[in-house]
Amino acid sequence: MGESQSWVRSSVVGVVIGVLAGGLTVFLIEALGHTLLGTGDPTDLTAITTPMWASVLVAWILGSAVGGAVATYWGRNPTARAGGIVGVVLLAGAVANMFAFPHPVWMVVGAVVLMPLAALGAARGVASTEEA
To answer: Which terminus of the chain has a smaller tally of CB atoms within 10 A, N or C?
Structure first.
């Protein structure tokens, strides 16, 4: 880390800020989905509709993308490493949620595949603008 870059703009702090930004994004999009579509009892899977599940998956994917982009931008990092780390951390949170109560298989597969890809894609997009 050079003189022109303080610890505040480091990759480590970027990851922390990225996780917070991604988590806030997930929270806001899930809240919007719950407002528009309602909520169901997680112990009764027939009470949760496919659009309800899909809105949560969309929140997770967009949260990963926002978190990955913020982490990379914050640390002014020319690589997507910080964004990838954020994607893994947010995926770990989603997996913990999946263990809390059953989720549809399509949602589990979608989260495991798309959350890291969204984080890395957004981080690479930001990293490529940092190089220029």
So the answer is: C
